[in-house]
Write a structure and sequence with these properties.
Elements: H1 6-13, H2 17-27, E1 33-34, E2 40-41, H3 44-58, H4 63-66, H5 71-82, H6 88-100, H7 104-118, H8 120-140, H9 146-165, E3 175-181, H10 188-199, E4 203-211, H11 213-223, E5 227-231, H12 238-251, E6 256-260, H13 262-266, E7 275-277, H14 281-289
Parallel strand pairs: 3-4, 3-5, 5-6, 6-7
Antiparallel strand pairs: 1-2
Length: about 290
């Protein structure tokens, strides 16, 4: 069971802590528990309820009506809205509910309805990535159950693999070698980069998680890719990351190397001339636009 502070509820739902307390006192919506040190905390059920209330309020349902509804009625309206005209924040909240409730059906409903309306790429960029940023708050506070994040990450990973597999492989196109550094397991961004590159007509060789650089180098010399793409999310010490950057520049000096991820984005290290930082995925599109396909 998750343990959430009122600030967690505020950050995840967009509803001010002051308003949550008023609803708690006036409508008896929540029954927070207390730790041994008398600090109030909220449960998974409380978080799901506040997210659902936020969603309904965004669609014009008054709190006076919501408090009269049973939990099942609230959930039913939310599922109906999942197939309707959500705004992005609503979709992010709905994905959070799907994660907390381990609701695979709701997850697929949200992704599929958005994919039909705005396409797969925009669904990932406008909804999936903001969702991951939002639940990052729970990691910082150690509130989220790792199993919940693993559940939703697995579904997203699976979806990315399926969508990529449907794209045509162009054997004679310029090629990208994609990998995660040794010890790096956060694969979503690398999978999405693989999808984007395939969708734009590039050939990709996908190595996946935690690949020692010596193994990357061996494959690199065997297949001679035109470009490399990697993601550095975890936090090794600054010196190790600086060495990693230098190795990228030296070992793959005949190719352009693209790198993204929190570690790369926050690093103060000097990037070698052939290593380019990608801050957002639209920057990858810009870079690709200047690299004509053969």
């Amino acid at each position: 069971m998750g343990i959430y502070s009122i600030k967690d509820l505020e950050h995840l739902s967009g509803i001010k802590a002051h308003t949550i307390r008023i609803w708690e006192q006036r409508h008896n919506l929540f029954s927070p528990q207390r730790t041994d040190t008398n600090i109030r905390f909220y449960s998974d059920e409380d978080l799901k309820l506040i997210l659902n209330i936020s969603l309904l309020k965004n669609h014009g349902v008054k709190i006076s009506k919501i408090v009269q509804m049973k939990t099942e009625q609230i959930q039913e309206q939310v599922i109906q809205l999942a197939e309707g005209q959500f705004v992005n924040e609503d979709q992010v909240n709905a994905l959070t509910v799907a994660m907390i409730d381990s609701n695979e059906e709701l997850f697929h409903s949200i992704i599929s309805s958005n994919q039909k309306k705005i396409g797969f790429e925009k669904t990932v960029i406008d909804i999936v990535y903001p969702f991951f940023k939002k639940i990052g708050i729970l990691w910082v506070s150690s509130s989220i159950n790792p199993a919940q994040e693993h559940f939703i990450s697995h579904l997203i990973r699976q979806k990315l693999i399926v969508e990529t597999a449907q794209l045509e492989v162009v054997s004679n196109a310029e090629s990208f070698l994609l990998f995660l550094p040794e010890g790096e397991l956060h694969e979503i961004s690398l999978l999405f980069a693989n999808y984007l590159l395939r969708a734009r007509g590039y050939k990709t060789i996908y190595l996946g998680q935690s690949v020692p650089l010596k193994d990357v180098e061996e494959i690199y010399h065997a297949i001679n890719p035109d470009y490399l793409f990697t993601v550095a999310t975890s936090k090794p010490n600054q010196n190790k990351f600086s060495v990693f950057l230098k190795d990228l520049g030296k070992k793959f000096n005949n190719s352009k190397v693209f790198i993204t991820g929190n570690q790369a984005l926050t690093s103060e290290s000097t990037f070698p001339e052939n290593v380019q930082l990608i801050r957002q995925f639209h920057e990858l599109d810009t870079a690709l636009a200047h690299m004509p396909l053969t």
